[in-house]
Amino acid sequence: MNQKRISGGLASGSIWSIVDNLAQQVLSFAVFAVLARFLAPDAFGLLTIAHLFILFTRLVVFDAIAMPIVRTAIPNDRLYSWVFTCCATVGLLLAGAMFFSAGVVSSMFRAPELKTVLQGMSLSILFFGLVRAYEARLVRNMMFRQLAIRSIFSVTIGGAIGIALAASGWGAMSLVVQQVTASGLALVLVVLQSRWLPSMVFDVALTRKYWHDIRQVGLTGVLGFANTNGDSLLVGIFLGPYATGLYNLAKRVTSSVYLVISSSMHRVALPVFSDAGMDLAALRRGYLKILGITLFCVAPLLCFQAVLATPLVVTVFGQKWLPAAPIIGALALLYLISSIVQLNDYLFFALGKNRVPVLLGIAQLTLATGLAAIFYRFGLLGMSLSFCAAYLMVFPVSQSLLSRELGLDLRMTWYALAPPLVGSLILLLGLGAYLLLMQQHFTNVIVVGGGVLVACLLYPLMVIATGWHIRAVNGSWHELSLSVIRLRWFCAR
């Protein structure tokens, strides 16, 4: 009976966790698209810079302090209260530091208007510190439904307030009020849902006991933050708020595909790799299968965004965001490669090669920083291409090391990935030809709608011609030859 209850809780928790993630992505993007109609790129650039400091505190500080709850078999209320005390204390100190250092930071970014934004956003740091123990408690008790409801309500209400203020001419401060309202409302809802009030627990013994774990998670958080948000930070430092706003839009458009599809496939990869153990044949099959499905879903969407970026940006966000269009094309390539590299990292961890992803991440970050420092003179597109170049330089190393570990050769990889890769290449060329024919004669809305129709027809057709199913086995040369013959026959027809 207990096992059934655990299984039911796991299934329900998984469903609500997916709902939570999907709802946040969809609602946040919808609010962002509406706000972009009222606000200039500078406003979003200012918020992006301020939000980087908040993300750093969440990933490096608050998540590290909450780690003992994850590592403890049966956490008690005293441990939850200790986590609350630590997060609340540190959150108060960091919020004060952000508020009083706002002038110095705004001078560093050469943006005087950033000072007010940073001071307003400092409240969010305090709210995130106060809510972290509650979140950990709900997660540990498999109460994902409450977290999903919290996310939906807080994002929706915060977004509605932000849109109303933006339409009234509040500028960047409308975004600040939106973020602070959402985080404050999330705190209130979680407190009401959990029906638990912490006590203040200052325990030096607990701090010493878990200090090693806290430090390790914090260091991992620093590297994770640098790899996922270092590009935005570099754009802000070198090019200022306006370019950061444009880059943020391009990143949100392209990363939405990565977050929804690739992240979901990566979660699936963990149990697949764990079940395979050290069976290299099973690992090869699982890896190629997941990689094939990931590329099958991600590649056509990123190709569509890259080719039709100009009409897509004008249609959804407005003419003032048009300079972000070429950046979308560059970041589409970046996230395509990133989806493969991240899956490789998961498999390295499964094989016990924990240092490989860390070293590759440091190398990629170092290359990106060095190239950005050189190519920022060529503007935002130059910096975006430098980030892509860093991934392109690290990717062959990652793929080569993984292929050696798994015993993969080029024939196996091509056989498994030919359908999505060939289909995406043909789609890229087809959409390019379609855009050249249509953009001079029709409105952007019609061009985008027609592009969706072309993609929905052309991509599946080419995948069927190449090999309709996602393959994960080592195909023979005879099967591979038949695949190529089918493709040539289809093109000749």
Question: Concise description?
Answer:
With 493 residues, the protein is mainly α.
Please give a structural write-up:
With 493 residues, the chain is mainly α. The chain folds into 2 domains: 2-234, no CATH class; 240-492, no CATH class. The chain is built from 17 helices and no strands. It is globular, with a radius of gyration of 24 Å.
What does the secondary structure layout of this molecule look like, with pairings?
Elements: H1 2-38, H2 41-71, H3 77-100, H4 102-108, H5 114-140, H6 144-167, H7 172-194, H8 204-239, H9 241-276, H10 280-307, H11 309-316, H12 325-350, H13 355-375, H14 379-406, H15 410-438, H16 444-467, H17 477-492
Helix pairs in contact: 1-6, 1-9, 2-3, 2-5, 2-7, 2-8, 2-9, 3-5, 4-5, 5-7, 6-7, 8-9, 8-13, 9-10, 9-12, 10-12, 10-15, 11-12, 11-16, 12-14, 13-14, 15-16, 16-17
Order of helices and strands: HHHHHHHHHHHHHHHHH
Low-confidence stretches: 1-10, 474-493
Major sheet description: none
The overall pLDDT average reads 84
Over the alpha carbons, how many angstroms does the gyration radius reach? Answer: 24 Å
Counting helices, strands and paired strands, the structural category is mainly alpha
| Strand-residue proportion | under 5%
Number of domain units: 2
